[in-house]
Each structure stands twice: as C-alpha cells, then as structure tokens.
Amino acid sequence: MSSEITVVVNGALGRMGTTVLSAAVAESGVTPIGGVDIAATSNSVDIAGTSITVPLADNILTFIESTKPDVVVDFTNGESAKQSILTCINGGVRVVSGSTGLSEHDLEEIQQASLDAGVGVILASNFALGGVVLMHLAGIASKYFDYADLLESHHEMKVDAPSGTALSIAQSMIDGRGNDFEQNVADLQTLNGTRGGDFQGINIHSARMPGRVARHEVVFGALGQTLTMIHDSINRESFMPGVMLAVKHVVDQNSFVVGLASVLGLDNSQR
Fold it and tell me: pLDDT digit string (tens) for 222-236?
C-alpha cells in the first residue's frame, strides 16, 4: 500500500459525505479519489472549498472495481448501508462507516463477513472525539448513581430516534454499572411518552429541531446531588478528526470494530 491512503466516499452528495471529501483533501496522508451516491446525476463532484473535482458514480460495486480504493468511508442509511458495506468487504476494500439504522442482525452479518474475508471495518455511531470520551466517562460514573436520564437533540432531518450515539452511551452506562438503573414510574402520566423511552432504567429523550447538529446530555441523580455531562457538536467538521483517525487506523485492521473507543485506547479495561 502506498503512503497515501486512497478514499472513496459513499453518500458523497449528502451533508456528511461532502464534509468528508473536504476533510480528506486537507488531511495529510489521505487522498480522496471519488464519490458514490445513488442520487448522482453527473460523473463528477466538486469538493467544497477546493478547486478539486473527483469522479462520481451511482453504483459502488463497479466504482470500487475501477478505482480500487484503500478505504470506503460510508455515510448512508439502513439497508443501503449494509449492502454497501458487504459489497466493499467482498471486494477486499476496508470500510469506515457512520451509517445509522443498522439492526443487530445487520451488525452480525457484517461482522461475520469481515471475519471471513479478513477485511477491516470500523463502524461508529459518533466520530466526535468528545462524544467518545463522554461515552467512556458515563460508563465510569454509572457505578456511583442509581438514577439516570439521557437527553439527545439533533437537526430536524435526522431519521432515527433515539440517536445511535444515545444508545451507545446508554449501553456503556449499563456495562459500567453492571445492572439496570432504578427508575421513577409516574402514577399519573397526563401526556403519554413524557418520561421518554426506557433503556434498562435509563429514560432517553429525543428532540429534533433546526439549529442543532448533535447534543448529548447525561444526568445522573443521587441523594442530594446530580452529575451532568454534556457534549455538543456545533458543526459537522467536529466529526472529521475522528473520521480521519478511523481511516488511518482501519488500513491495518482485519476485523470488525464497533465504535472509536478502542481506537482511542478507551476500552473497558481502563474503567
């Protein structure tokens, strides 16, 4: 493999995809060589903020066969994401994905394909490094509190609720605590759903509105005190250092990794 890591972005016309292309141009050791998007109507795409144009296609299979990238960065959704990731694995191309809407069965299928082919895949619900640190710290704090609420808010176009990051934070909290949280159950709920969704005793609340990119807030409660942890992503550029870190990490990987915790050295053994 050359010193430059060649990257194709899947979902290249979306808001995250266009940001990834620009970040790849600016990143030392990384070169964007094309994009794929099912909405493509031309055979090229201009990279925002630069004078660079790269090839664009609407079919990932034929495109990776012709361009032979080192890594595909995937920001799509659901079934489309799963099929794209499996296509890349079968083609021997490593993947970094921030796609949402993948089920547990989808993840198991991707993991098995990665294992069988020996092709590295990093899939993360959040590439903001501060968000990953929040996830880790919430797992540590969970040992010391019996009650917890998790509030997340995103832009109005986000298709899933709660966010994948919120679910990852909640799972980290349960893993850190070792069992379910205690929970208030209202005797009278005059508006259904007011207490949010229930994840093993953690009440999760989702807001969707213009003006937000991503915000996650964990509130722990105990006798006479609360502890609040908040992470805000102000813009999509906040995710790019994590994406580029994952791109540089995955080229040496032959297995399936969920989340950036292990990439940053924040694994369960450090709790």
Answer: 999 999 999 999 999
